[in-house]
Each structure stands twice: as C-alpha cells, then as structure tokens.
Amino acid sequence: MGLRRMLVVAPHPDDEVLAAGGTIARFARAGGEVTVLAVAAHMPPLYPKAVHETTVAEARRAHALLGVKQSIFFDNPAVFLSRIPTHELNTSILKVLTEVAPDVLLIPYLDRHVDHRVVFDAAMVAARPVHAGAKIKLVACYETLSETHWNAPHLEPNFVPNWCVDITDFIDLKLQAMSCYASQLHQFPQPRSLEALKALALFRGSQAAMGYAEAFHIIRMTTGPEL
C-alpha cells in the first residue's frame, strides 16, 4: 500500500509505547516516518508541573530509541479533556493530522479511561474520509495495557483484535523504551510493568503464530489501484 507516514495519537505520554512501541520501531526501521501526538499532559491541577516535565523528557528518550521522527505534546491537563469544547479538541487534532498527512493512523480504543474515550472520538472525527482524512490508508485502534482490559465485559465494548503486527525482533527495544518511563512503570504483578507488557505481547503473538505481537482493531483500510 506504500505506507510511508504514521501518526500515533496517544491520550498521554507512555500510551504510545505501551500500545504500539514495537510497531513504531518496526515501521521506522523500514524507513517510515513516525509522528507521536500526546494529547493530554501530566500537569496541574491533578499533577505538579514537575511531573509533566519528567514525562515529556521520558517520552523524548523513548521516542529516540524507537526512531520517532516528530514528537508533539499538547498542554491539556490529564483527566480534564472532556472539559475542552469538542470543536476545539477536534480541530487541534485535525490540524496535526493535516500537517502530518499520515498513511497509517493509530488511535486509542474506546476503553475505561475518560481521556481515551475523548481522544478516540476526536480522532475519529479528524479521520473522517474527507479532506486530509481521505488520504489515510489504514485507521486502527490499539489496546492500552490496564485501561483497555478494565471494561465491564459485554456491558461495554470489548477489545477484539483483527490485526496483529509481528514485533518479535523489536520486543526488547519496546521494553527498553518503556523503561524510559520510570515515573509511569509499576512493579509486577501490576499491569503497567515490564513483565506484564512482555506477557501481553507473547499472548498476542501466540494468537497469530508469531513470537511477540501487538494487536489492533482495524477501523478502516483502503487500497489503491496497485492491488
């Protein structure tokens, strides 16, 4: 499909590595250009300003390891995205999407975290198949370890992947990138731990005859005349 540019929309810094760190590295290693947009920030009123500065620095180190070309950080306080007027948030994400002109768009699944839900909605508006959105060849949701798996089964949407990316050659790099987020990591058996992250990749790989994989749910995929 001639995929050259990828945009990963993350509700918070660290979601992009938890969900798609191996896919980002694989895409970049193959010569693709990856942009990561972090929509919310760990900043006041819920977090001290120092936490925001720490997570941004951690994100830049992680992105450098993975081969991310461009890192964009919005100054929207975490857990308060729903208070931003809908048209303003939609427009801000659409502006980045228009500038990046991605072939691949990865967005959060509609899961337990209120910020993930708001970002999902805004990204879906930006990705509509008109104007800049019409040029996107692949739109897919990713799972975020912990939040995506805390939904109420059958009462809320369940994450059911229909696309697995083989990250066997990049699992160690994914874990190294996640290790950059020292402020966000937890000790096993907490879900946001390196052990749990590797275990999820092993499980997803086992579902698709791969060593390690990251799973996604494809929302829209188009092909050109070459197929």
What do these coordinates show?
This protein has a single domain (5-221), classed as Rossmann fold, CATH 3.40.50. Helix 1 crosses helix 5 (171-179), helix 2 runs antiparallel to helix 5 (171-179) and helix 3 crosses helix 4. It is globular, with a radius of gyration of 16 Å. It has 227 residues and is of the alpha/beta class. 37% of the residues lie in helices and 20% in strands. The chain has 6 helices and 7 strands; from the N terminus they run βαβαβαβαββααβ.
Give short descriptive properties of this protein:
227 residues; alpha/beta; Rossmann fold; 7-stranded mixed sheet; 6 helices; 7 strands
Assembly form of the protein = single chain
Write down the secondary-structure element order.
EHEHEHEHEEHHE
Alpha-carbon distance between the termini? 8 Å
What is the CATH class name? Alpha Beta
Widest sheet: strand order? 3-2-1-4-5-7-6
Helix content: 25-40%
Q: What's the CATH architecture name?
A: 3-Layer(aba) Sandwich
Rg over alpha carbons: 16 Å
Fold-level CATH name: Rossmann fold
Short characterization:
With 227 residues, the protein is α/β, with parallel strands linked by helices. Helix content is 37%, strand content 20%.
Which helices and strands occur, and which strands form pairs?
Blueprint: E1 5-10, H1 15-29, E2 33-41, H2 49-66, E3 70-77, H3 86-100, E4 104-108, H4 114-126, E5 138-142, E6 163-166, H5 171-179, H6 194-206, E7 213-221
Helix pairs in contact: 1-2, 1-5, 2-5, 3-4, 5-6
